[in-house]
Structures are given as C-alpha cells and as structure tokens.
Specification:
The complex is a heterodimer of chains A (about 180) and B (about 150). Chain A has seven helices and four strands. Chain A is α/β, with parallel strands linked by helices and about 180 residues long. In chain A, strands 2-1-3-4 form a four-stranded parallel beta sheet, sandwiched between helices. Chain B has about 150 residues and is mainly alpha-helical. Classes of the chains: A alpha/beta (about 180), B mainly alpha (about 150). At the A-B interface, helix 1, helix 2, helix 4 and helix 7 of A face helix 2, helix 3, helix 4 and helix 5 of B.
Chain lengths: ~180, ~150
C-alpha cells in the first residue's frame, strides 16, 4: 500500500499511526501553550453562561453568573424600529477584521478586547452617545461576544444595554443591508 | 536533473512548512479571534470551537516545522493534506452559503477577508503538497521498480 502512486503512497498503517501520534503531540502542546497564556481560550462547556463567564473575565468585568439572564434581548424587528426612531446605538462586538468586512450600517465596533484597555478609551469611543440605548450584537445566536461586551458595559456603569442575539446573521436573514469598511 | 528536482522539493517544503509555522504562531497569538473565525463558518458546534482554536495552531506549527526539516514526511504530508482539504471545504461552503466568514488563516488581525484569495492559496498549497509527495515517494516507487526489473 505504501508503495503505490499518488496520494495513496502516504497512506499506510504506519503513517496513520504516526499521524495519530503527531495529533496527540499537538493536542498536548496546544493545551500547554493555552495554559501558559495570559488570555487562555475557555475550556469546552455545554453551558453558555460558563463560556460567557470565562470570556467576560478576560474583559476584567466579570459579573456573577446569575447576571447573564438580566440583559434583555431584542429581535431584529425591534432593533429596526428603534433605529428608525434614532433612539439607539448599535455596537458590533466582533473582532475588527469582521467589522471591516461587514457590519450593520451606523454600528460602531467595540470588541471584547477593548475592555482590557482603560475604560476612558471606551468612553472616548462612545462619547456623548453613552446616554443612548446601546444594543450589542455579534455573529449570530451561537456567538457569545455580544453578551460578554454587554456585561462588560454594565460593569463599566453604562445603562440601557440590550443585546441582539440574532446577530448579523439574523439581520441579513431578514433581508436587511450591511456595509463594509471602518 | 535529480539535483534540480531535489532543490525544487526542498524549496517547496521550506515555503509550505514555514507558511504553516507562521500561520500557527499568528493563530496562537490571537486564539480568541481565531475562535471567532471558526464560529463564523457555522460548521463546528460551539463546544468544539475552543478546542479547535487551541489544537489547530499547535498542529500547524508542528507539521510546518517537520515539513521544513524533512522529518516524518509521510504522516506530515498525510495530516497536512487532510487539514488543508478541510480548510478548503470550509472555505468553499462559506463561499456557497455567502457567509460573512473570515478565513483566519493568518489571524484576523491581518484584515484578510477575501475568500477567493484564501481558496486559491489553499489550492496552491494542496498542489504543492502533491508535488512533494510525488517527488519524494513517487520516485521511491520508480526506483524500486527499476531495481526489481534491473
């Protein structure tokens, strides 16, 4: 089998066994590196609140686990109505590269990483708009960044915080436009 | 002629190997962003996203280093082909589904977001791996055949 031509020349019992050994080495090395990191990736959990809690700790604004249910969530239609009434500011919680690629019109980018910086920087970004209703979104229902940023804002004494768990996926699913650029 | 072929294969191994090492290091440095990139493809259940974002960069670094050094080539080529084919499939599916997915191949911080560019690069890497495979193990077979017949 190992003597055959093309891709199959690399497939043999021995090479598969060695590949498994390399995978085990990678799993071990990955976890060791992660454990040594200042911002480790959270351990796998089926519990959304646990995943959120870990990420929010990174923002140095960890609320108690019970608080995760206190931030109200809005539907896409509710957000559209509020935008029409100019009552709110949309906050995109995804990393900047995602924001540059595509975001909801008039949204500003405030990724989770921002909260590692002094809160003055965030206040500078929001400016006079801090009194508005702040609606935080990320990629979609599976993404936890919107909750993490929303809780980090609450912990930084911002009020009127909402999330839109449908995220940009739900926004696009409703046939609404997005824009790109900074 | 064989020397020229060897030089090409070594160059190809170095280029692809170092590319993998670089990609692995960048992802390791920005693992939370990489986790977001993985989520954006909507192919992996949320519970596995963190694990993949931890293991994949380490795997890329190990495979890249071994390929560049020419060590354990069979399993390295096998794993690299599987990993690259998985990347390519994910990118193609994202393109078909028109997802706002970020490749994350060299970290989100690079601002790279052209799926077409990422797909082309993955195709080139697969072609490069195929060339290394043929040049390294195809020639072994030819040599073995010629030994048997001679």
């Amino acid at each position: 089998m190992s003597d055959s031509h093309g891709w199959f020349s690399i497939v043999s019992k021995r090479s598969i066994a060695e590949a498994v050994a390399l995978l085990i080495l990678a799993v071990t090395a990955g976890h060791v590196i992660n454990a040594l990191r200042i911002e480790p990736v959270p351990p796998p959990s089926f519990d959304r609140a646990a995943r959120l809690g870990h990420k929010t700790e990174l923002a140095r604004a960890a609320p108690s686990s019970g608080d995760f249910r206190t931030i109200p969530d809005l539907t896409v239609n509710q957000v559209v109505k509020m935008l029409e009434q100019k009552r709110c500011l949309l906050i995109d919680a995804r990393p900047p590269a995602f924001f540059r690629k595509e975001h909801i019109p008039e949204a500003i980018n405030l990724p989770l990483r921002s909260f590692v910086e002094p809160t003055d920087a965030i206040a500078g970004m929001l400016g006079s708009r801090r009194e508005m209703v702040l609606i935080v979104y990320c990629s979609g229902p599976d993404c936890t960044d919107s909750d993490s940023v929303a809780h980090a804002l609450v912990a930084s004494n911002y009020e009127n915080i909402y999330t839109m768990h449908a995220g940009i996926a739900g926004w696009q699913g409703s046939g609404l436009p997005t824009v790109n650029g900074p | 002629m064989k020397t020229i072929t060897n030089a090409y294969v070594i160059s190809l191994r170095l280029v692809i190997g170092l590319m993998f090492v670089y990609a692995g290091i960048v992802k390791t440095e920005n693992s939370l962003d990489f986790a977001t990139s993985i989520s954006s493809f909507r192919l992996v259940p949320p519970i596995l996203v963190g694990e993949i974002s931890i293991v994949l960069p380490a795997l890329e670094c190990i495979l890249g280093a071994l390929l560049a050094l020419g060590l354990c080539l069979r399993p390295v080529l096998l794993l690299m082909t599987v990993v690259n084919a998985a990347f390519l499939t994910a990118l193609l599916l994202a393109a078909i589904r028109k997802l706002p997915a970020d490749c994350g191949c060299f970290g989100s911080a690079t601002g790279e977001y052209s799926l077409a560019l990422s797909i082309s690069r993955d195709c080139l890497i697969l072609a490069g791996l195929w060339c290394i495979n043929i040049a390294t193990y195809g020639s072994t077979r030819t040599a073995a055949v010629s030994r048997r017949s001679g």
